[in-house]
Specification:
Number of strands: 29
CATH architecture of the largest domain: Sandwich
Radius of gyration: 29 Å
Strand content: 35-45%
CATH superfamily of the largest domain: sav2460 like domains
CATH class of the largest domain: Mainly Beta
Number of helices: 3
Oligomer: single chain
Strand order of the largest sheet: 1-10-9-3-7-6
Shape: elongated
CATH topology of the largest domain: Lipoxygenase-1
Distance between the termini: 36 Å
Length: about 450
Amino acid sequence: MRGLIKGDNVFVPTAVLRIAVRNDIDVAALLVTERGRVRGDADIVFDGAPVHPSGAVRLSGGMAGDEDGTVWVDADLTGVEEEISRVLVVASTENGALRDVRGLSVEAFAPDGTTVVGYEVTDAGGETAMVLAELYRRAGGWKFRAVGQGYLDGLAGLAADHGVDVTEEEAEEDSPPEGSPATPAEAEAETQTQTQTPETPQIPDPDPVPTQAQAPVPTPIPAPAKIQVPSQAPAPVPYAYPYPPVAQGPSGWTFGAVFEPRTLSGPGNAVIDVEDLPPGPVVVELALKTDGYTGVWTLSPENKEVDLLVNSTERDFRGRLLHVVPKTGRLRLKLRADGPWQGRVLPLAAAQLLTEDTMESWGPNVLLHTGGPTDVAFHYRGSSNFIVDSYDLAGHDDPTTLPDSLQPYINEIGRRRESLSLPEGPVLVHLGRADGPWRARLKQPSTATAWLRRARR
């Protein structure tokens, strides 16, 4: 074997070379042009896409490699496309730095199994990603170079240097059609007349606690009437939001109890009091006919306001709230409603299932993801807070509670396009604040994004 030091190069046979990368390191190969950049995601070879479309480069052994910690990159130099000038052998760590990798090295073997060339990395430091070596065209043949170029910013920096595009902008068709209504109120006004546009309501301060200027507190209403739960649903009213019927939950999803929806209605301010519910998270659906302020608070057993769930000045508020019923089985909420309203208490089975089809809705909501790791893309067209978090229910065995919310989350103000990474389901996606229309859909991450994410797992 001819051992190289960093920067050395040597001609190698134009044949099928087997390249061993040691030890216990994540490995990928990038096929780049003369500009040093990939042409697209297909030029990234890693365990999630282990064979290049040309068949010339393939990864074997996967992330874990062989039992001795070796990962193999097979490079058929006779089959590499003319547009490709270099094949980079890349290594990265899941935890720690490359200096912690024992015996980090690259060794190339000829078709007969003899060693052609090797390179042992001896000067790795705090980098978490590195171009170990490269095969490149020279004088009608191929050469091997010991590169050893590390990146303190990891695969993100390495990817950026080689033209890997990890941005995932929404498609143009996801934008609202020109002239389409932006809010339910506008949609209603547009139905009545094509010449009038409703005024935009004042938006509350980003601070979730309403101020006097935003929503003056009226003279306390003496002893708000307890809302009785009728045995049958009230007749539909024009302002009811057309949510889909309650199903028994997506196939295979059994978290939480399934019960018959409890229907509610009232003329204005009220204390919502529903008994005999199964303890645990539920969905509270509300629709109001109002031009004023809407607020919803959870109540303590002493009738003190605890958590502010809704703080909105939007006209005709509607939405779905996530709330955990205590072990007493009694749900108590204080509702500030400047107009008639109706609602339902629903099981988590009523959560709308996220798919790759675009979902259009308005206001806060509770969504469900049951597939594999992916991203959910949002297009929010409101003017106030847009807050989205998520809860991983996989392995959470207590249906009376919710696990801690996942990181990262979305917390923005105004019209936004945002994406949220989701692990393998079931995962609840909670739009806690969304006083405006929005769209959502699952999107499959690009190969580049999957590569970076897999290496960071």
